[in-house]
Fold:
Amino acid sequence: MQKQSAWRFRSSSVGLIKVEPNNDDYSMNNGDFENSSSADLLPFGKSDEKTQLFLKEIFEILLKYISKSFDRKCKILDFHHPHQLLEGIEGFSLNINGEAESLEQILVDCRDTLKYGVKTGHPRFFNQLSSGLDIVSLAADWVTSTANTNMFTFEIAPVFILMEDVIIKRMMKIIGWENIDGIFSPGGSINNLYSVMLARHKIMPDVKHSGLRGFPQLVMFQSKHAHYSNKRPAAILGIGLNNCIDIEVDERGHMKPEDLELKILQSKLDGKVPFYVTATAGTTVRGAFDEIVKISEVCKKYKIWLHVDAAWGGAVMMSQKHRHLVAGIEMSDSVTWNPHKMVGVVLQCSMFLTKHKRLLESCNNMRADYLFQQDKHYDITYDTGDKTIQCGRHVDVFKLWLSWRAKGDKGFCHHVERCIELARYLVRKIKKTPGFQLVFQEPEYSNVCFWYYPPSIRNICDEVIKNEKLGKVAPIIKSRMMERGSIMIGYQPLGSKVNFFRCVISNCAVNYDDIDFMVGEIERLGHDIDM
Amino acid sequence: MQKQSAWRFRSSSVGLIKVEPNNDDYSMNNGDFENSSSADLLPFGKSDEKTQLFLKEIFEILLKYISKSFDRKCKILDFHHPHQLLEGIEGFSLNINGEAESLEQILVDCRDTLKYGVKTGHPRFFNQLSSGLDIVSLAADWVTSTANTNMFTFEIAPVFILMEDVIIKRMMKIIGWENIDGIFSPGGSINNLYSVMLARHKIMPDVKHSGLRGFPQLVMFQSKHAHYSNKRPAAILGIGLNNCIDIEVDERGHMKPEDLELKILQSKLDGKVPFYVTATAGTTVRGAFDEIVKISEVCKKYKIWLHVDAAWGGAVMMSQKHRHLVAGIEMSDSVTWNPHKMVGVVLQCSMFLTKHKRLLESCNNMRADYLFQQDKHYDITYDTGDKTIQCGRHVDVFKLWLSWRAKGDKGFCHHVERCIELARYLVRKIKKTPGFQLVFQEPEYSNVCFWYYPPSIRNICDEVIKNEKLGKVAPIIKSRMMERGSIMIGYQPLGSKVNFFRCVISNCAVNYDDIDFMVGEIERLGHDIDM
Structure:
């Protein structure tokens, strides 16, 4: 089927730079897979020769993709609408019809899957908090896949189970606690869920067996700029979203400790039990850091669990220069940190950490002795099976462990500092470029939020009309950048602020020229917008 | 440090076959990495040559490992105790000291990580429900790692998001529902949690916002042989484990529908609200299949959500011959299936499926419009971000998609039927081998549970003493097999049955000789046990 775009790109009068398409025709280097099937591979094949040849072809496809990911001449994506991909493009079909395809087709499928995807490692991909393509952690993830084991017990994952222990103990020193327990889990949302569960278990251990009925109503708090996964546990755990109270933020996007205290007192007056506060280290949109010291004082006063959601901002712990942003983190009860965000470990790699030893175990264990035998011949204290809410658990630690070994503390430190420095450069650039405006004052982290005003709306005096038009600019530019594949950057509204761009820098492949290019490209893509 | 085992293997008088150690000294093929660091790799290096060389070295290590995984002459594991691995063995240190290591060391680390791990793909690894090393899905996981994207939106994972949709729709036909919705999540435990959340949301949608207080007490039910993750949601969701009722099983290990009905009625008499039943398709230990048709009739009568935990047994849906084991599955409200178990997709790959459209969305959405924009230029119905309890979600679909493309329905069917056939062969073997005894009658699936009686206890008349001694046999043999690295097979007690071996066959690399070898090896390792 011929490639066709349903959304017609209105070409700009400004000259657009040439972006090469992602064509890399798959060519056979070794062997002929046209007449081969998966039945020729191990363990069915007579030797492992065919397997090795097949994997070599896969490897070549991956090497080409990696090289293109870092190549600024290549598009970030080759955009197609859902219906186009579902209908099939240039022979690439997503269909599962039940027939077995040849290994030749399987190789083509792998190539096409990458070809029609998004190069999240591209130096001009600023779309998500996680970006980049770190070679060492990528290698580690290949090793992990190949080891194909599971994190329940030392018995079947001896090395990985101990690496998790080693990393968690190292985090104790980095955070500054005197004790630590923790677990790697599939993402910050699950980790934030762990924290609320533990806080509930600490204050009301009987809920585990008796249920919430009959207990006083629990109430939890977070800044109105907190990630939605800080609230969702209220829905999951039976606390109710109505008992999840938003705290006001100041002009820097920081939770107001005085508003927190007020709302804690109010909830007590209502006969409820305030038990849990999230402070955010690096909010999703602004990258703001709540003031942990002040919040921890309030929490201490009212004996409330303090969780720091540092999924995005936790990386500043690696930099002496920026660590002040999480000053007081050692006063928290628990922390979420996602090394797959700022320090670039490939997806997924996320930790839940708490200073309360054995609470994870006591909260989550199900005494499934028929699965976690107590009469093993080795020291079973490292078995983690009964402290998670999962059973099987993917090996996520090795990517971080290997990356840390390869880069050292200094490498992580450099990564964070470099990304923040690039963000500051972008701020300076925005300030001096006509038509661009920062949404907030100086950012604390690497999130930079800004509007672009096309010339046609710059001189509108009526602020209401101007804002209404401005809110439509970012979606139009976003659709154009996706069609062109030249840059990727997200947008969203926030409270009364209409749609604005949020540029996030977490990819160490980004350089100053990429920042300049991004600003220039937004102008090229948007200057002719006239509504 | 010299390798030393703290647990001394008492050599058996029966000749043990030679098992080769896992030594494969890492040798440089290309380039010199001794003086290279991660700073020489992309995006820092001037060209991608060094990156390609580094990844080629990794690839060679993986190829060697894969080859050894299938090689019966190689050990499954090279056992060391936790303290030995933590102290460091033959230069392999798990330590993170903050210094950056050379790329040479990083390569050695990768080799050693695999060397001291467990070869879960080995044809004599019968230890877990997930085993084997499927080459196509392994290749898919390498592609997934390299694509390094996230499952929230079509925007950044266009191909993978649609593949998930394609697979889920195919599951609709396979299960026999008229509608479907679903999500890939990190494991069966999380999927079982989804099912209880949805059942609660369907019966009490206000709980999401108001919390459980004020609502009648919910009660849920599962067989006493169900996996513990079917009960844990009661602890998480605030229902309470005391309100999670075990149902008796018959001699085949099937939940008794009449006991279920009795306990439902009892809970109603107690003023509670029965709302959720799990039927297990393939119990963890015995591999028993609850009778879904009978259970669904009870559920229908009392308007109760029926979940089928087919994490392990769901694969029988791919076989006409064995599909009868899940007869009635189309009458369920939701299903968990883990293709990383029986059909051998590499870890992790697990689905939650429900016939109730839009319930996932209505239960889990947080209306985080600032993250999931509604004014995008493409059809956003495929964005999954707001129907999961995660935010970022690992790409788990591609492993299954590619594997299904490569093998077809027939390949999956063959896999299941072959594993069950091998299990039946093992049953016949056990019946005719002196000293071995089946714990249960004929197995329905590929779990085979048996005891081995060493000669020293075979003639003990006092059943109490005999049983007590028997319970100690499996742990001793297990420790010996781990020391030797020749086979891996799990054991556990169940109810009044003392420790017995559970052999699970889910690896299509296993052949009849491996079954013979396993039985012979248990005898070789255990015949001299004298207590």
Chain B touches chain A through 167 residues (CB under 8 Å). Residues 149-398 of chain B form a domain with the Aspartate Aminotransferase; domain 2 fold (CATH 3.40.640.10). Residues 493 and 499 of chain B are 4 Å apart (CA to CA). Chain B has 15 helices and twelve strands.
